[in-house]
Write a structure and sequence with these properties.
single chain; 369 residues; alpha/beta; seven-stranded mixed sheet; four-stranded mixed sheet; globular; binds NADPH dihydro-nicotinamide-adenine-dinucleotide phosphate
Length: 369
């Protein structure tokens, strides 16, 4: 079997190249280029010394044994290790790449380099992960939503939310929303979505994630009080908060028009889940809409904190990391408010673009680039 592997290094003005690795059949150079380009500005918004990059492969991890996954991760690292390193490029996970895959890749990195350094983030706690990295993207998105709601005197309590996806970001967004008193109406995958009028409980989410961990789809799980529907939830489910956490372009114009009729806010957990035209629909309807480069920056932010802990050879407590994550998300919200203020409210998309670009361009100017 042949697969193509990529590592795209975009901009290192602010620090080492940094961005996830994606293993999915849909991966191609174009997708990784837009993800890597966006990553530059997302990483700048965190305020940490991180450049921007991205990578991955069209390898399909679904239905593979641990041994097959390990073989692929090792082969991938045999090629990639020439280009990465603690002060060069520090990859992390993304779709299809979690703690298991990062562990196998780090194993081969150590074999090849004889160096025990944090050349990747998202590692298992036994090999110096930062606490909270696994949940950081989802938690960060919810902290960002909390800051957005505060602008209009609202809270997450009772907010009825559509969440898409049932992977890492969707799981931790849903769990955090439930813990904050919000009502999570849906989770989804490529086959369709589960809808529960009374809201998914933590026990329901446990069952759904355990089911997905067996590589099964949502059309084959029974959750009490929930129904499964083929397709996407956006036009069918009326809610206050919409959290697309699956993949790019999952919301088109027709979906955005339906969302704009009811939404209090739209918060991207995934990267660029709205088409450009769908973004314009929400903008014209003055719906507060957080782009992924702002609202899902919690993942890379905690990766940056993991790099700091690895460099100091000293782990921080979970509470310490979570407190720093909250501070970073609040600061990103503040940057969006400063750069994106309009007479109708905060233009989060414009604000995040301007704030991120300003920091990168200022650094490039200092370097004479
Ligand atoms: P996972 O692989 O853990 O989960 C992806 C989820 O999205 C799965 O439930 C998958 O369904 C679903 N999905 C994928 N493609 C489609 C599709 N075409 N239609 C419907 N559902 C789909 O990935 P992550 O949760 O890690 O990543 C999700 C998004 O968040 C991506 O855009 C990623 O780039 C972004 N992101 C992730 C970060 C992280 O820390 N992991 C950080 C910042 C952004 P199925 O099971 O059927 O494949």
């Amino acid at each position: 079997e042949h697969n193509i592997g990529y590592r795209l290094q975009f901009n290192s003005a602010l620090g080492s190249y940094k961005g996830g690795l994606r293993f999915d059949v849909t991966v191609n150079e174009d997708i990784l280029k837009f993800l890597g380009f966006e990553q530059i500005f997302k990483n700048a918004l965190t305020g940490l010394p991180l450049g921007g990059g991205k990578g991955g492969s069209d390898f399909n991890p679904k239905g593979r044994s641990d041994s097959e996954i390990r073989s692929f991760c090792w082969v991938f690292m045999v090629e990639m290790y020439h280009y990465i390193g603690i002060e060069v490029d520090v990859p992390a996970g993304d779709m299809g790449v979690g703690g298991r895959e990062i562990g196998y890749m780090m194993g081969m990195y150590k074999e090849l380099t004889h160096r025990s350094e944090g050349a990747m983030t998202g590692k298992d706690p036994l090999i110096c992960e930062s606490f909270c990295r696994t949940a950081a993207t989802g938690h960060g998105a919810v902290y960002f939503a909390r800051a957005m709601l505060r602008e209009s005197g609202k809270t997450l309590a009772g907010l009825r939310c559509v969440v898409s996806g049932s992977g890492n970001v969707a799981e931790h967004t849903a769990r955090k929303l439930v813990s904050e008193g919000a009502v999570v109406l849906t989770l989804s995958d490529r086959t369709g979505y589960l809808y529960k009028e009374a809201g998914l409980t933590t026990g329901d989410i446990d069952a759904i994630i355990a089911h997905k961990d067996t590589d099964a789809n949502l059309d084959t799980i029974a959750i009490s009080g929930a129904t499964f529907t083929v397709g996407k939830p956006w036009q069918a489910v009326v809610a206050d908060g919409y959290f697309p956490c699956a993949t790019q372009n999952e919301i088109d114009v027709a979906d955005a028009k339906a969302i704009a009729k009811h939404a209090v806010l739209v918060v991207e957990g995934a990267n660029m889940p709205l088409s450009n035209e769908a973004v314009a629909v929400l903008h014209d309807a003055h719906i507060p809409h957080a782009p992924g480069k702002a609202s899902n920056a919690g993942g890379v932010a905690v990766s940056g904190l993991e790099m700091a802990q690895n460099a100091a050879h000293y782990p921080w407590s979970a509470d310490e990391v979570e407190a720093k994550l909250i501070a970073i998300m609040e600061n990103i919200h503040e940057l969006c408010r400063i750069e994106g203020g309009t007479d109708w409210g905060i233009d989060y998309v414009g604000g995040a673009n301007i704030a991120g670009a300003k920091r990168v361009l200022a650094a490039m100017k200092v370097l004479g680039w």
